[in-house]
TrEMBL record:
<dbReference type="InterPro" id="IPR001360">
    <property type="entry name" value="Glyco_hydro_1"/>
</dbReference>
<keyword id="KW-0326">Glycosidase</keyword>
<feature type="active site" description="Nucleophile">
    <location>
        <position position="367"/>
    </location>
</feature>
<dbReference type="InterPro" id="IPR018120">
    <property type="entry name" value="Glyco_hydro_1_AS"/>
</dbReference>
<keyword id="KW-0378">Hydrolase</keyword>
<comment type="similarity">
    <text>Belongs to the glycosyl hydrolase 1 family.</text>
</comment>
<protein>
    <submittedName>
        <fullName>6-phospho-beta-glucosidase</fullName>
    </submittedName>
</protein>
<dbReference type="Pfam" id="PF00232">
    <property type="entry name" value="Glyco_hydro_1"/>
</dbReference>
<dbReference type="InterPro" id="IPR017853">
    <property type="entry name" value="GH"/>
</dbReference>
């Protein structure tokens, strides 16, 4: 078949998920509590329609059926995360053997079906006991994470060849320590800086442990939501605003993870306006010597900024937004079903930046997707006719293809997400899956996009 967009041999086609969002069984089979279980008990009204993490698509009991569906729609790879509090209920110490059996079964089942497991260690789900010790602010918790990572590698590393230390580590920083969106609902720039820094140290420690175990053919990386930062204009003040937003939201993780060091300009800004985090002896060498092998790129939308129009109130708490204002660019294309901007070329700009400034590190698109509210309204002939999602994916894939032609080292595309799932505060508000899930009966059905994607992955292009 003549294809306009043919992808390289061995390209990874699949989708991504996270444990808390799909597993369900939050209080079953020895799982310990994490911050989501706890926060829902405290303030269920903070969650859309009061729906909490117990009630998800229930992958825990449906994984065999789900893996069959993955195979049916042509997946050759699939991302899960391990629930730290399922595997080690208190965060450190005793390992829950029922969790070991569950993850072994999922991994083996994926491999038996020709689907490469991509496994992430941390997707926003701190065990409650460790949060009570200070969460990512605490160096003891960093050590507990290192122990957890080692146990995962030893248990599953004989079969799992793609590991990730964190998904979107900026999110717990922003949502949990700056903007009062996630638990522990702290608003404090200095504490946020410590959390960000400790996460970078934790990631480097996991990379160090993984490499020391010398698994054959295994790679370890990190997954970052890289949000290209576009200035309103070429005016120096707008350019500076965009550069600072890039430092705060992208480079604070990208540079240490891939280059092994922090950007000097970021250090200067933190020093000038706040305090540097507490740095332990040896940390900077650890970061320098333990860069990642592979990078997952989550891309949804760009960040558009302009220079600040009014002086900031120096009495208010320090925030990244002291340095730039959001820019609502006239005429930008919006996802009218979710409210996020759609800018397909962003994917190309990110990958070119990785090629030019980050040693063309091996990468893959680890999340990209289109959330839709009330998606049942598009049901016809018992199927969700999500042509908008097909167009969204297709247009992003065109730019991805262009980036490969330009020499970018990008090896795959994973949609967020496989099946509609529970999305934190938004619960089931926005649907992203190839597969729709009836939340009451847990019945799964293929959306039109799943059928389209089957052809794309089977043909390795379109
Ligand atoms: C991604 C996260 O950034 O956004 C996912 O990694 C999340 O965990 C997804 O579910 C969609 O978010 P929302 O807010 O549209 O439900």
């Amino acid at each position: 078949m003549e294809l306009s967009y043919k992808f390289p041999e061995g390209f990874w086609w699949g989708s991504a998920t996270s444990a808390t969002q799909i597993e369900g069984a939050a209080n079953k089979d020895g799982k310990g509590k994490n911050i989501w279980d706890h926060w829902y008990e405290l303030e269920s009204n903070r969650f859309f329609n009061n729906v909490g993490p117990e009630s998800t698509s229930d992958f825990y009991h449906h994984y065999k059926e789900d893996i069959r569906l993955m195979k049916q729609i042509g997946h050759n790879s699939f991302r899960i995360s391990i629930s730290w509090s399922r595997l080690i209920p208190s965060g450190r110490g005793e390992v829950n053997q029922r969790a070991v059996s569950f993850y072994n079964a999922v991994i083996d089942n994926l491999i038996d079906n020709g689907i490469e497991p991509f496994v992430n260690l941390y997707h926003f789900d701190m065990p409650l006991d460790l949060q009570n010790e200070g969460g990512w602010e605490s160096r003891e918790v960093v050590e507990a994470y290192k122990g957890y990572a080692k146990i995962c590698f030893e248990l599953f590393g004989d079969r799992v060849k793609k590991w990730f230390t964190f998904n979107e580590p900026i999110v717990p920083v922003e949502a949990g320590y700056l903007y009062n969106i996630h638990y522990p609902n702290i608003v404090d720039f200095k504490r946020a800086t410590q959390v960000a820094y400790n996460t970078v140290v934790a990631s480097a420690k996991a990379v160090e442990v993984y490499h020391s175990l010398q698994f054959k053919d295994g790679k370890i990386g990190i997954i970052l939501n890289l949000t290209p930062s576009y200035p309103r204009s070429d005016h120096p003040a707008d350019l500076k605003a965009a550069r600072i937003a890039d430092l705060f939201f992208n480079r604070c993780f990208l540079d240490p993870a891939v280059l092994g060091k922090y950007p000097q300009e970021l250090i200067e800004i933190i020093k000038e306006y706040s305090e540097l985090p507490l740095i332990h002896d040896g940390d900077l060498d650890l970061i320098k010597n333990n860069t990642v092998d592979i990078l997952g790129v989550n891309y949804y939308q760009p960040r558009r900024v302009k220079a600040k129009e009014y002086a900031v109130n120096l009495e208010s708490p320090l925030m990244p937004e002291w340095f730039f204002d959001r820019y609502e660019m006239p005429g930008r294309k919006m996802n009218k079903y979710r409210g996020w901007e759609i800018y397909e070329k962003g994917i190309f700009d990110i990958l070119i930046n990785l090629k030019d400034n980050y040693g063309n590190i091996e990468s893959f698109i680890s999340e990209n997707g289109m959330g839709v509210e009330d998606e049942e309204r598009f049901m016809q002939n018992e199927q969700i006719q999500d042509d908008y999602r097909i167009e969204f994916i297709r247009e992003h894939l065109k730019w991805l293809h262009k980036s490969i032609e330009a020499g970018c080292n990008v090896k795959g595309y994973h949609l967020w997400t496989f099946m509609d799932n529970w999305s934190w505060m938004n619960a089931y508000k926005n649907r992203y899956g190839f597969i729709s899930v009836n939340i009451e009966t847990k019945e799964r059905s293929l959306k039109k996009s799943a059928q389209w994607f089957t052809e794309v992955s089977r043909n390795n292009g379109f």
